[in-house]
Each structure stands twice: as structure tokens, then as C-alpha cells.
Amino acid sequence: MHRFAALIIASAVAITPAQAQTASELRISGTVEKLDDNLAALSLSRGISVVVRLDSEARVNSVAKGSGSDLKAGSQVSIQAKSGQSGDLIATQIVLFAPGSNRPDAEPGPDNAELVAIKNTNTSPEGTVLTVADKDGDRKITIGPDTVIWIARAARITDIKVGSAVTMTGVKREDGSLQVLRATIGPAGAGNPPL
Q1: What pLDDT, on a 0 to 100 scale, did the predictor assign at position 192?
Q2: Backbone angles phi, psi at 2, to 5 degrees
Q3: Which of 30, 80, 93, 149 is disulfide-compatible with 42, CB 3.0–4.6 A?
Q4: In this structure, how many other beta carbons lie within 10 angstroms of the beta carbon of residue 152?
């Protein structure tokens, strides 16, 4: 809901081309309703629609569902986690970046997920436990039964089709459209794919 409120507020503010270079990025998720050359109309929630500009410079991945068996030592992943009852970390979502995929920036994104390397995997009574290396050292993160695992692979902006579920970041342009900088294409009907 906060993302949509931010989008509506940002839509009411005019941004000049010089400001667009430094303007903060907007993040949206929705379904592609219509494609017209390099413009796409996205349906967000509650009847909100927005037009995005699909330029060839955008960094694009497609994602598909994965499983714990896809997670190996040396893999690059982005993990969202929550604290368990005993203070341990339990993964809510993991994105495995396949070789050649467009990996996110090193800094944590809007969901506080950051790119880390898997050092090893072990099994415990609670589930598979990943040991990951990040800037603060090694951390242990448990994969629970509700953990969603995605595999991200490099894609092109032209892979976006009518009906695609997408999550995008971009900057507002003078014509009111959003110029896409990064995008993730998910399977139709899968909800909001991770960025």
C-alpha cells in the first residue's frame, strides 16, 4: 500500500529532465495490460494504472520458482529474513541469481535484502540452514516451509509481454511516464516477482 501511495504522490509532482537524473527511483509491481511500441500500460492494484517506458538500457531478469535443492555453496543470493522466536533468522524469500543474470546493487534494496554468497548448507530439525557471508561476517539463515525461492536469469526488455507479472524501478519522465531502469518478469499469475 505504501508503494502505491508513493507512486500517486510522485505522479502529482512535475520533474524536469535535469531533476530526473537525480530523482529517487519509484518501485512498482503489476501486470502488463497493453504494449504499444516501447510503452507499456501496467495494472497495479485497486484499479490504478501507470504507463512505463521500456527502453533497451534497462537491466532485466526473469524469475521462476526454485527449491532448496537449487541453493549450493558459492551461489549468489538475495535473502529477505525475519527473526524467529529464539532470535534466529528465518528466510521469507530467497532469490538465486543464475550465472549471467543481472544482480542487484551491493547495497540493501527497499526490502532490506542484500546480495550475499552461500558458504554452505546444512540440515537441521527446523529445515535447511544456509551459512552466508556478508559485510558483517557469517550468518546462519533457516529455510522454513513458507520460504519462497526464486531463480533469476538474464532477460531482455522485449521479453515483457501482455499478461506478464512485473516488478520495476524507474524514474518519472517529463511526459508523465516512468522510465524503467530495472525490471523482473515473473510467471503470469504469480503475484509480484522480486526485483
Answers
A1: 80
A2: -65, -35
A3: 30
A4: 26
Residue with cell string 501511495 = 5
User: Which ranges of the chain have pLDDT less than 50?
Assistant: 1-22, 106-108, 110
What CATH architecture does domain 2-56+156-186 belong to?
Answer: Beta Barrel (2.40)
Please report, for the chain, the start and end positions of each structural domain, with discontinuous segments joined by +.
2-56+156-186, 61-153
What is the per-residue pLDDT for 72? 92
User: Are 115 and 104 spatial neighbours (Cβ–Cβ below 8 Å)?
Assistant: yes
C-alpha to C-alpha distances, 86 to 60, 83, 103, 137, 147, nearest whole angstrom? 38, 8, 32, 20, 18
Which pLDDT belongs to residue 173? 82
By the 8 A CB rule, do 115 and 95 touch? no
Q: CA 145 to CA 126: how far, in whole Å? A: 9
d(CA 10, CA 33): 22
Q: Which residues pair with 183 in a beta bridge?
A: 60, 168
